[in-house]
Structures
1.
Amino acid sequence: GELAAIGELRLAGHLAELAVLAAPSDTSAQGVRAEVNRERVAAERSLMAKGIFAWAQHESEKAAGQEESR
């Protein structure tokens, strides 16, 4: 998202989460949530936070049909 592009990952994460909660079947919202959480994993230093963001990314990728083979 645009907020993530300017470094506002925390706000972008909250807004993406709200969008998915409002419309869980919206694959576009799920895709944005996955993208934002992917960026949050890369930027985060805390292992626990990385795990939470990676989980959210994976769940949104599945919901959006973007899941890669692991």
Note: The two ends are 25 Å apart (CA to CA).
2.
Amino acid sequence: RRRPHLKLSIDGQWVKSSRNSTAITIDPADGTLFARTQQAGETEVKQAIEAAHRAFATWGSSLASDREKA
């Protein structure tokens, strides 16, 4: 079974970390490798914070019924 190597989701895009570091996630049901997840570097953290600030105004003023679809 192929295990995914997950990128970072920032501002609606899947991006590769500049840090080139991963963490493993273990399936608690059987102790096997579930996925390898990239660890964000300083650049990606800044990008994610900027994206969150841009999204806040529209997300916060949208209806809950619209947010639950996201």
Note: The first helix runs from residue 42 to 61.
3.
Amino acid sequence: PLTDTALSTPKSCRTAYAFGDRMARVAFEKTPSGVTGWVSCDAEETHSTGQQRDGWQAILDRFRCHVEAAG
């Protein structure tokens, strides 16, 4: 089951959630040039660190496209 906690301010939004025995942390921060986002999670053993990093980057890239299309 997923569990989460969140903290939001006018300039940032941070959340953390558990999935299985792993944790993920997500943060978005408003900057003068737009919004910067980060994802940090506990690694899993099936895929290499590089594959996992590329997968999370793809998720963030798709999210950016979604947000930009929504205006």
Note: DSSP finds one helix and four strands in the chain.
4.
Amino acid sequence: GLICCNQQSKGTLIGAFLDRFKLTPRTIVLVDDSHKELVSLQEECAKRHIKSVSYHYKAVSRLPHKPFKL
């Protein structure tokens, strides 16, 4: 699935989402251009004993236009 966080901490928001729907996934995958957000997700997953796979997308600065912001 895909969750839009509207500039909120991804780790905090994913934690709230999992609690709200009583979910315990085996693995969460995150692709983000922010190292800070990758770390926040990894920390949240570690607290919950959930495996996380994170990819730091660095090519965003080479896009011909600015990314869409909500």
Note: The chain has a mean pLDDT of 89.
